[in-house]
Design a protein that fits this description.
By secondary structure, the protein is an alpha/beta fold. The protein folds into two domains: 137 residues, P-loop containing nucleotide triphosphate hydrolases (Rossmann fold, 3-Layer(aba) Sandwich), CATH 3.40.50.300; 294 residues, no CATH class. It has a six-stranded mixed β-sheet. Strands 2-3-4-1-5 form a five-stranded parallel β-sheet. It is globular and about 65 Å long.
Length: 438
């Protein structure tokens, strides 16, 4: 049976000549043959399986009833299969995680196992964390530079390395095109669809995600969960408190969900990688004091936020949008553009072995949308503005941070919707989002 299965997998999942490489492939090329087991995690539809299939020789799709039954009968089957072995949607059989962990402990070589999953480790599963044995790598939706709409001319990694070379490049991608990119989403399987089919798919994605039983609860609460998810999406690119989000989700309701119920909502959406908050910068070993600790809210793809808000890009382009009771961007479209930029920068930063966060002083005197930081303390502060032509006020927080820690700031970036990439006289690199790459 195993030989037949392996042969089937080899014939069905040989390298796909039409596959478009993702940025995560750069990382997998570099470390994939050294690490015995890699867990590619991320929201459903970001392309995890397709990427893993390019490297696997034996494939077990655990969301297939036949394959699940096979592995339930013989947990050890993957350990005798031809590597690399892909265990796709492994969470359907949580015990298989322990099988891989034990195989690594027994000396499995590098590049032996790939696991993919659209949900984190089930809370009730009695399994080892996998720490030190199974290496997790998060995969996000397509970045702007992966969408084949423009060629990036500026590398974030080079700027992090202190290479203050000439910032140059021009693009015809403007606000209308960015709005279209927000609506089309970064999910590879959804992007090519017509607008109507795409919207139907995005709505179904939300419905299926909010109708699942919340872990740790015996009840399904799709209406309340969807309302909270919509309120969270409306808080995109803000630091709104969770109490404010709950109030927005239950406006006009006398009986609000209990705090532990809301915590389960948040945990449920986090486990599915649907909410992707940006942490606050801790600013270690700096003179900076009294920084706020609140996360900045983002969901996995701003296209979902558009659908959750019950609006469309035509309305957003006219300055309309949901009634947002949170302090943040001037318009909802501006918040979505910032989220689109954050989505891409996070991927670029991870490839450069850097972390991402945001900065806000406790009274809101200074705010910076993204802080990219290497382990050596080198940082690049990034502001995101929907404007085509920046003003001095758009860069004042970037210049303020450089004044505070001049020896740590490698560069300063202002991401725009403009046509040209260039460097201002104050040293700020003005870069259209479409021209920034890893």
């Amino acid at each position: 049976m195993l030989n037949f299965l392996q042969t089937y997998c080899l014939l069905s999942y040989a390298w796909d000549m039409t596959y478009t490489r993702r940025h995560i492939d750069i990382l997998l090329d570099e470390i994939g043959q050294e690490l015995p087991a890699i867990f590619i995690k991320g929201a459903r539809g970001v392309g995890k399986t397709e990427t893993a299939l390019q490297r696997a020789k034996t494939v077990f799709h655990l969301d297939s009833p036949d394959t699940l039954t096979l592995l339930q009968a013989s947990h050890e089957l993957p350990t005798t299969a031809t590597p690399p072995v892909l265990l796709d949607e492994w969470q359907f059989l949580p015990d298989i995680w322990n099988v891989v962990r034990r195989a690594v402990d027994a000396g499995a070589p590098g590049g032996n196992y790939l696991l993919t999953g659209s949900a984190n480790i089930p809370l009730e599963a009695h399994i080892h964390s996998g720490a030190g044995r199974i290496t997790p790598i998060q995969m996000r939706p397509l970045t702007i530079s992966e969408r084949d709409i423009e060629t990036a001319t500026v590398s974030l990694a080079e700027l992090l390395n202190g290479n203050k070379s000439k910032i140059e490049g021009n693009t015809n991608i403007g606000l209308n095109e960015y709005a279209e990119e927000i609506a089309r989403s970064g999910f590879p399987g959804i992007r090519p669809l017509s607008a109507r089919a795409r919207n139907a798919q995005l709505d179904a994605y939300i419905d299926q995600s909010t109708h699942r039983r919340i872990e740790g609860s015996q009840q399904r609460t799709p209406v309340a969960l969807r309302a909270w998810f919509a309120a969270y999406a409306a808080a995109t690119a803000t630091t709104a408190g969770y109490e404010a989000i709950l109030n927005a989700a239950t406006s006009g309701q006398a009986n609000k969900p209990a705090r532990n119920t809301v915590a389960k909502f948040r945990e449920h959406l986090s486990r599915l990688y649907l909410i992707d908050p940006l942490p606050a910068w801790t600013a270690s070993f700096t003179p900076l004091k009294r920084l706020a600790s609140s996360v900045k809210h983002h969901i996995v793809d701003p296209a979902l936020a558009v659908r959750l808000a019950g609006t469309d890009m035509a309305a957003l382009m006219k300055g309309r949008g949901p009634d947002i009771p949170y302090k943040g961007a001037e318009t909802f479209l501006g918040a979505l553009f910032e989220s689109l930029a954050v989505q891409s920068v996070r991927v670029y930063a991870e490839l450069a072995e850097a972390n991402t966060s945001h900065l806000r002083t406790d009274k809101g005197t200074h705010e910076i949308d993204i802080i990219v930081e290497r382990r050596d303390g080198t940082v690049i502060p990034i502001e995101v503005k929907m404007a085509q032509t920046p003003s001095d006020s758009d860069v004042k927080h970037l210049n303020w941070l450089e004044q505070q820690i001049p020896d740590r700031v490698a560069d300063k970036i202002l991401i725009t919707t403009g046509q040209y990439a260039y460097r201002r006289q104050d040293g700020v690199a003005v870069i259209p989002l479409a021209l920034l790459g890893p």
